[in-house]
């Protein structure tokens, strides 16, 4: 039984894993020694004592091993010029010739064809057949004579009954004339639990279950800023770009553990307590292969984890040195427990003395689950003290920049930590990020600051409903549970899986809807954030994710109604299809606001208050069903155990079901203000 989630872990409570057991397999040992070599070779000029000894032992074991620009060449069995794990990549070099096109792992199904069911094209939107004047004038008062209004949930997928060029005034007139219509004359009725969208994975090439990840090599500033890099990333479910930090002059030293420790030693740090397991292994307490993954949340601080991360490396230096010395002396496979693990042997790094400060690791549940490790997550770069780190990230090309005028997330208007702010992750070998979709299926950017490598797994968006079904078969919640898919299960199901190694300086681009999971091979720090490229595919995936979340009662971090209004106010949209999608949702949202206000008017026990625009919170979610609550908030004051005043927010659908007279109703934006945004939103030419 672990500590409570809010319990803070101190240094002496962190357990230190034994990474090199006597029965370690050769492949696992090689993988670990390569990561040690990366760090030792990078610091060769300042090495002393046991570090020098271990470097010589590793070089003796792998005579062809070399390192160039943080990348290994000439590993066991490879020629001296072959990159470590180089066969995982589809290498793309940008030059004056035509850019190489990427072949998808399955027969390409056009995005427009896959998503067209959910989103009507302009040709399917009806033309205006009724003059606004024929529908009667807009009511002068908000008072309504109706006693009840149908319980209509808001949906991005409800087909429109009105043309996209409708004005705000005409929409209000149609609403006034159709108060008893379930769609208030604006949208057609749609089931609350239905998404008219099912991805269609094409199995014409199921023999290609191990596709190579596109690796885009950037060798100059001009190449880095060229549209080809952006287009190649956007065209693929997952891709990797190599060379951006070096060609753009990004100072990687600002992302070291030492630098972050100097800035934020006392900052809280979320820890994930996990079991150290061999690659592609994920077992339960009984030693059986499972999809469930133990990743227990607790807390510490940056200083504590920095010490732990450093000590774990020093400890493995001692383990590796003793193991290699013993192996070279014996020259046969044995289990020299007394020599390898002797606590009486004093190493020249003083690790034995430090280890005594840590909790004893080794609650042996089975042959695999015996050593715990800790993953330091979510050091947020949103505060001013991290300005150097943010400035370095702003050197990246616009499409993957943290802040950019063409990035949907830059127009949200408030910080969503880890999404439109960058976050820092501190890892050691075996630390895992379980399988997940990015919040609201936004794209993500992940920079490996090194010095070690990470292994990535990715599945294209076409397959996420199938993976959801496989989770349900195993009684795992796709959105809420911590899970690590079994690689062989995915192969047997015919699901192509990208599997590749992210080296220091590499940037992984994850497109919307791509399910992915990551394991640290060595000691490394990563920086990650989300972006929203101004594209039709991105916006559609955002809407699909929002509806998926609502149906599964999972809160969407990004409020898509609110964001759509922000985009209309602040961005110039030149793509006709994207413009039509956004304009359609503004019409749905505007009409729904009118519908909710009519409901408030129909109840004598509710009073409408105007929201103070100086109060920084007009975005909320229903505390009961988790749906986004936009503009009109139904609020109920509560008091927590400490006597603090809190407020629960409800959506109109849940309010109608309860009919609670103690609710307060707050309107954030006047309809006139929304009308101005709606009418002024034009296609940019």
Automatic annotation (TrEMBL):
Residue ranges annotated for the JmjC domain, each copy included: 385-548
Domain of life: Eukaryota
Chain residue ranges for the region called Disordered: 122-146
GO cellular component terms given for this protein: MLL3/4 complex
InterPro entries, A to Z: Corepressor-Demethylase, JmjC_dom, KDM6_GATAL_sf, KDM6A_B-like_C-hel, KDM6A_B-like_GATAL
Subcellular location(s) of the protein: Nucleus
Keywords: Chromatin regulator, Dioxygenase, Iron, Metal-binding, Nucleus, Oxidoreductase, Phosphoprotein, Zinc
Pfam families noted in UniProt: JmjC (PF02373), KDM6_C-hel (PF21322), KDM6_GATAL (PF21326)
Bias-annotated ranges (Low complexity): 134-146
Single Gene Ontology BP annotation: regulation of gene expression
PROSITE patterns, A to Z: JMJC (PS51184)
Entry annotated with the keyword Iron: yes
Cofactor: Fe(2+)
GO molecular function terms attached to this record: chromatin DNA binding; histone H3K27me2/H3K27me3 demethylase activity; metal ion binding; RNA polymerase II cis-regulatory region sequence-specific DNA binding
Family per similarity comment: Belongs to the UTX family.
Protein name per its UniProtKB record: JmjC domain-containing protein
Annotated source species: Bursaphelenchus okinawaensis
């Amino acid at each position: 039984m672990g500590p409570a989630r809010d319990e803070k872990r101190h240094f002496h409570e962190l357990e230190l894993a034994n990474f090199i057991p006597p029965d370690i397999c050769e492949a696992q040992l090689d993988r670990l020694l390569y990561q040690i070599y990366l760090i030792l070779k990078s610091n060769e000029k300042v090495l002393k004592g046991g570090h020098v000894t271990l470097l010589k032992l590793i070089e003796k074991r792998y005579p062809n091993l070399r390192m160039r620009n943080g990348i290994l060449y000439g590993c066991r069995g490879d020629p001296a010029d072959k990159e470590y794990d180089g066969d995982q990549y589809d290498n793309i070099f940008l030059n004056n010739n035509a850019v190489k096109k990427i072949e998808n792992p399955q027969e390409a199904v056009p995005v427009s064809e896959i998503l067209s069911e959910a989103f009507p094209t302009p040709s399917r939107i009806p033309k205006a057949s009724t003059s606004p004047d024929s529908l009667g004038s807009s009511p002068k008062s908000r008072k309504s004579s109706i006693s009840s209004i149908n319980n209509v949930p808001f949906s991005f997928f409800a087909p429109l009954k009105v043309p996209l060029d409708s004005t705000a005034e005409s929409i209000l007139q149609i609403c006034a004339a159709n108060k008893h219509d379930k769609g208030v004359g604006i949208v057609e009725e749609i089931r609350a639990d239905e998404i008219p969208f099912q991805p269609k994975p094409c199995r014409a090439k199921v023999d290609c279950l191990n596709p190579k990840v596109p690796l885009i090599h950037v060798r100059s500033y001009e190449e880095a800023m060229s549209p080809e890099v952006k287009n190649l990333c956007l065209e693929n479910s997952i891709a990797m770009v190599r060379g951006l930090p070096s060609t753009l002059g990004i100072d990687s030293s600002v992302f070291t553990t030492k630098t972050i420790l100097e800035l934020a030693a006392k900052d809280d740090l979320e820890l994930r307590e996990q079991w150290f397991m061999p690659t592609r292994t994920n077992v339960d307490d009984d030693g059986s292969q499972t999809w469930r993954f133990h990743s227990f949340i607790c807390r510490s601080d940056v200083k504590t984890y920095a010490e732990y991360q450093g000590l774990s490396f020093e400890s493995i230096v001692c383990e590796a040195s003793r193991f290699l010395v013993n192996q070279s002396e014996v020259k046969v496979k044995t289990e020299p427990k007394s020599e390898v693990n002797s606590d009486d042997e004093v190493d020249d790094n003083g690790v034995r003395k430090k280890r005594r400060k840590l909790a004893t690791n080794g609650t042996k549940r089975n042959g695999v689950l015996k050593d715990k490790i800790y993953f330091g997550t979510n050091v947020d770069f949103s505060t001013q003290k991290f300005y150097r780190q943010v400035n370095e990230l702003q050197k990246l090309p616009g499409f993957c920049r943290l802040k950019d005028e063409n990035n949907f997330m830059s127009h949200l208007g408030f910080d969503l930590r880890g999404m439109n702010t960058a976050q820092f992750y501190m890892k050691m070998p075996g630390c895992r990020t379980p399988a997940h979709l990015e919040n609201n299926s936004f794209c993500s950017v992940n920079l490996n600051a090194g010095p070690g490598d990470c292994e990535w797994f990715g599945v294209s968006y076409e397959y996420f409903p199938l993976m959801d079904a496989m989770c349900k078969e195993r009684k795992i919640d796709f959105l809420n549970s911590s899970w690590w898919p079994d690689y062989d299960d995915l192969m047997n199901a015919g699901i192509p899986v990208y599997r590749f190694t992210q080296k220091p300086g590499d940037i992984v681009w994850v497109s919307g809807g791509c399910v992915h999971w990551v394991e640290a091979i060595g000691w490394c720090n990563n920086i990650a954030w989300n972006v929203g490229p101004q594209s039709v595919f991105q916006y559609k995936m955002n809407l699909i994710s929002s509806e998926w979340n609502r149906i599964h009662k999972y809160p969407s971090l990004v409020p898509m109604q609110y964001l759509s209004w922000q985009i209309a106010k602040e961005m110039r949209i030149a793509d006709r299809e994207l413009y039509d999608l956004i304009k359609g949702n503004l019409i749905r949202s505007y009409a729904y606001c009118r519908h909710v206000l009519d409901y408030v008017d129909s109840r004598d026990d509710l009073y409408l208050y105007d929201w103070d625009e100086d109060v920084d919170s007009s975005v909320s979610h229903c505390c009961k069903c988790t749906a986004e609550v936009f503009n009109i908030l139904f609020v109920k004051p509560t008091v927590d155990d400490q006597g603090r005043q809190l407020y629960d927010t409800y959506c109109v659908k849940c309010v109608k079901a309860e009919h609670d007279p103690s609710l307060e109703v707050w309107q954030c934006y006047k309809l006139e203000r929304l009308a101005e945004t709606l009418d002024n939103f034009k296609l940019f030419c």
